[in-house]
Write a structure and sequence with these properties.
Oligomer: single chain
Order of helices and strands: EHEHHEEE
CATH architecture: Roll
CATH class: Alpha Beta
Strand order of the largest sheet: 2-1-5-3-4
Structural class: alpha+beta
CATH superfamily: Beta-grasp domain
Shape: globular
């Protein structure tokens, strides 16, 4: 399943990109699963998306919780709880 992932503010700075197309492995079907999959990259990814770190998440520009399902073609965004304009 392929989807688009967006990173904002400090997360974007840590991982070095604002967006990417991501092919998910079988079994990854929620926003939390996407986060965990990305964290497995290690390094800056593990730090920016750490389990205990408070992050906001959105699917197709709607705020969601980690248990929200994702499907092919969705846009998933991760950002800190407070962002500036």
């Amino acid at each position: 399943m392929k989807l688009k992932v967006l990173y904002f503010a400090g997360i974007r700075e840590k991982v070095g990109t604002g967006a990417e197309e991501l092919e998910l492995p079988a079994g990854v079907a929620t926003v939390q699963g996407v986060r965990s999959h990305l964290r497995e990259r290690g390094g800056a990814w593990a730090e920016a998306l750490a389990e205990g770190k408070l992050l906001r998440m959105a699917v197709n520009q709607e705020m969601v919780r980690g248990a929200t399902s994702v499907k092919a073609g969705d846009e998933v965004a991760f950002f800190p709880p407070v962002t500036g304009g």
